[in-house]
Amino acid sequence: MKMKPVATAILSVTLAASLAACSSSTNEPEQSAQDGNSGSAAQPPKAVTLKGMLFGDEPKDLPLVLEEFEKQTKDTLNTKLDIQWNPVSDHKQKVKLMMTAGEEVDFVFDAEFQNLRELIPQGAYAQLDKYFNNDEYPGLKAAFSPEFIEMNKRYDDHLYTIPFTQYFYDIPVVYIRKDLREKLGFSEPITSYEELQQFYEKLLESEKSITPLAVKGNGGFQEIFAPDRKELDTVRPLNLGGLVYYVHLTDDLKQVQNVVAFGDAESEWAKLPAPFNTMKSAFPQYDKWAEWSKYLEKDVLSQKDQKAYFMSGKAASFYGTISSYAADKKMLQETLAGADLEFFVFKEHIRNMEPQAIATNYKSNNSVAIPVSSKNIDRTMKFFDWMFQSRENHDLFEYGIQGKHWEPVGENQLKLLDESDNYTFPGYEFTWNPNMIRTPEDLDETAKKYLEYSANADTYYAPVLAKFAFDTSSVKGEFANVQSKADPFIQTLKAGQIKDWEAEFVLINKDLKGLGLDKIREEIKSQVQAYLDAGGQ
């Protein structure tokens, strides 16, 4: 399937970058957006402190970066940031509670896997359309193309987030201790699941104190062993609240025939074309996850940070994505003497860097939303406009203070300095943009090729229903009940802890129907049909 021209335009910007490198106004007079690095004779706006909520660990040197930001912009933005950092496991619930309590906050990290599906229909977040493609916000206009913004609008054709991405797919990999691989007699890098399993078996035999594979408890194997097969236009998966619903369309892609969910009767699955005509063939990875669970740590469900577990020397490999390779390699070498890092791209079509190997909806997975209750919406958007006005502004937050944490190399590379460990900022929560990518100067050629591949327009294609977004507002009670019941089961499944998963699915399906599964199913049918009738593809 060929990509739409719109998507090609978006990704051509990404490629160039990677290779060359409801408003609630404050009623204050707004200053024209300008580069915060230069002085201005204009009167600065009234001082404001913007409160935000992100997740993870606060970078140690963030106060120094904020101090530098305030110094550079005191005569222009006159803005301070006060960021609350939530634990990863608590962020979703804390945002929800904060919004319910009406607590004042000006920006929050939110995403499809967090609260966006629930909070946007409730009117919790401000519409941000007017701030983009607007000459009064030149930074946002330059960094976010009209096509990219269009792709990230919601079901009501409005934008409620600032979408962050570098590439439209961060290639998943298994990171491997190269030194351990060589120690155990594997002379060449691992290039197949079979070789990876041989490595793990040797580890179980020879290095009993080391866990072969580290994964996060609530994520489990994730995409490992996911089917690497050609998409079917007539059978489209929708992942809603952790559950996969298969939408079966007619051959002309104009009518919804039915929607099949986990645990449905065999007769329902049999209506789908192969390989989706049985649960076993639709989800072949589940048997593999159960088989490979012996390579995980015993208490895997309580593991919150698989990378830290790996970096401590307790695991020989961990699940990750390629964008963090340079930083992870540096961290490992500094943490464990003699250790080195390499990666295995486990999806064959991607490993071979084949064209149109990755399906995408061209939406970002990560974003910041502005609560409609904020009294500083315009000022918040002025800050983000400033950040994207120049590489210097952007890089201050993404990489830290130039000369202290990092230094630029050419137009689109960087060198991390000794103090960079004191400033590791989660750019995917706040700063990522395809126009402002820097890659480490010492990145090896293999990693560079995969990053270039992930930025290449021809790598991607838009499948049927790529732009469809499900609106939960009419089934929010049922959706919440089904999700709360399914979440623990799905988490256990992903960690390979359920061997007879088909029988378990059938049992839980009965419970989910009692909680509103069939009502959700009918709503999916109705919304997809309306989407198709309106000309959606």
Structural summary, described in words:
- This protein is of the alpha/beta class and 537 residues long.
- The chain has three domains: 48-168 and 363-460, Periplasmic binding protein-like II (D-Maltodextrin-Binding Protein, domain 2, 3-Layer(aba) Sandwich); 172-215 and 296-346, D-Maltodextrin-Binding Protein, domain 2, CATH 3.40.190; 235-280 and 467-534, no CATH class.
- 36% of the residues lie in helices and 14% in strands.
- It contains 20 helices and 16 strands.
- It has helices at residues 5-19, 62-73, 91-101, 116-119, 138-143, 146-151, 178-183, 193-206, 266-269, 279-282, 285-292, 306-311, 325-335, 348-351, 377-387, 391-399, 445-455, 476-494, 501-515, 517-533, and strands at 48-55, 79-86, 107-110, 161-164, 172-177, 235-240, 243-249, 256-261, 317-321, 341-344, 358-359, 366-369, 406-409, 413-416, 439-440, 460-461.
- Strands 2-1-3-12-4 form a five-stranded mixed sheet. A three-stranded antiparallel sheet has the order 9-5-10.
- Helix 18 (476-494) runs antiparallel to helix 19.
- The longest helix has 19 residues, at 476-494.
- The chain is globular, with a radius of gyration of 24 Å.
- The model is unreliable at 1-40 (pLDDT under 50).
